[in-house]
Amino acid sequence: MGYLRRLGIDGYMMLLVAMVLLGALLPARGMAAEVLHFATYWAVALLFFVYGAKLDPASVRAGLLNWRLQGLTLGATFVLFPVLGLGLAAVFGGVLGPEMTTGLLFLSLLPSTVQSSIAFTSIAGGNIPAAICAASLSNMVGVVLTPALVSLVLHRDGGGVSADAVIKIGEQIVLPFVAGQLVRPWIGAFIRRHKLLTMIVDRGSILLIVYSAFSAGTVAGLWSHVPASRLLLLFGVIAVFLALAFAAMAAAGRGLRLPGPDRSALFFCGSTKSLASGLPIASALFPAASVGAIILPTMIYHISQLLLCSIIAQRIARHVQISSPGAAGRG
């Protein structure tokens, strides 16, 4: 287990994989599926309520003063990534099939991770306040911008997002988030003190969504329609996506001569994608039977980014210790 932890593989990551396998081998059917759908809906609402209640607007305002880093992070998340996604979809879409291609485009439109990107920035000795702001702002913007971009991109491909899906996003995600922000002065301190409770809500909701999505996909015949060769190709495409994202963020940090700590924050906030935000949005936007295939690229990207970012963050930290203790975050 110690070796796996050094590689960035923890119990939560193994639980994610277990939920995929459980959904494939023992999918919920009939009444059980209806109960699961109901539970997942309210778990998502609770998740975004907690996000709203624990996000301090003051930290976001303070981090905005570093406008160059924030602009680069938002540009990478909502401009560079969609362009890369459209390019990869154009090249590989005919082989991946419509649902996985939609999933690849959906992945490219998601906001940055919050906990992971901040944790990796911290390990690398980067600018933690700026990372908190960048990740938080990305997710606040993404709650509204991601569904809008999905609608724009899918209309481009002849699809679209229905009015019912937009209303569901508002009811299930935006309203709980706003409600959490409104009651934050009264419950924010309680939520920050009880980190175990918020972690259970956060990770428990994601595990529930993963099982629900892959369970519905299995019932709809997901695995019978996805040959092993297509899955292998998807892994390869995601590897290319990650490599391009990492290279772009590293080049931007060096090319613009950002300080070392800011480069680390840009690298980890600009190259990661949020599974926590992506799964609820996908479950609200897409039919239950197709969600499993659509979120598959996001699942693969998420697990891959955790592994690789963990290794990179530790290498940066070791490089900083060897070179000069005062150059935290240089890498």
UniProtKB/TrEMBL annotation:
Stored Gene3D superfamilies: 1.20.1530.20
Keyword check for DNA damage, yes or no.
Answer: no
Keyword vocabulary terms for this entry:
Membrane, Transmembrane, Transmembrane helix
Q: Tell me where on the tree of life, at the top rank, the source sits.
A: Bacteria
Spell out the protein name for this chain: Bile acid:sodium symporter
Q: Does the keyword Transmembrane helix apply?
A: yes
State any GO CC term: plasma membrane
InterPro entries on file: Na+/solute_symporter_sf, Put_Na-Bile_cotransptr
Q: Give the taxonomic lineage as stored in the record.
A: Bacteria, Pseudomonadati, Pseudomonadota, Alphaproteobacteria, Rhodobacterales
User: Where, by residue number, does the polypeptide cross the bilayer?
Assistant: 42-60, 72-97, 103-123, 130-153, 173-192, 204-226, 232-253, 265-286
